[in-house]
Amino acid sequence: MPGVEHETMVLALQEDPSLLRRLLALAGRRVPLRGMTVEDTAVRWVASAEVRPDLLYSGPRGAWLAVEVQRQLDRAKPRRWLLLTAVLADQRGVMGDLLVVTASPAVARWAQRFHHRGRSGSEVQLRPTVLLLAGGTLEALLDPKRPALAFLAAWAMQDRRGAAARRVVRRALALTEGLPEGLREAQVRAILNVLSAPMLAYLKEAAVDINKIPESPWVKAWRLELEARGEARGKAEAVLAVLSARGLAVSDAQRARVVACQDRAQLDTWLRAVAAVTSTDELLAKSVPS
Question: 239 and 202: one domain?
Fold first, then answer.
């Protein structure tokens, strides 16, 4: 089940295709996006078979671009990607591109080429276009002239917690101050969504230290958001703990929904009801009283 980090990145690329276009340019890739539009990502070749990339762009004369945000190795992906590219090439009449976006050097190496060989010597291979958010590309994302790209740099730090990662995240947040007010708040939320708990704890501590980050209005709003996020996380964990203690089954999707919830009123509603419900489905059906 994709996590919040994965879904936040996919949503950011979907809502603002210019991020992907700029990222491709920084990496020296010439995958044309002009004239392309996002479409339903379900790719079907018979009624019972479906493969779904994270994003799918379609353009004139059959052009297509499939995008996969890949945080870790997945042994099933080589088979699915072969199917995806074969079906799209057959349906559209042209070979498009499969773009893999990752922050992991190991995933980048793994995704460079998939080679399958049959016992009698038949071969098929797929070499996706891989964008690794590291090194020079990562540095280029921290461009004061293009503060919207800072989210991509922060996303690349999602599982890291060392001094280098802290510098990148703080630079990303500092650059976010250069965005218009509405976009600034949205980008801060997106950055906080993809960071690890230790990194959030570090930022919360740093944010209240005026010697490190001055308490400007946007930093104050950021600090309050961090505090609210920590409170929401604790309530979500309490809901899951009670469900577990009562022996009620919780699927991966249900767990992800509870953990991702930042609405404290909704979490309070679940906390009040969790002791009396007979199933997790019944609990999650309860909404905040109007």
Answer: no
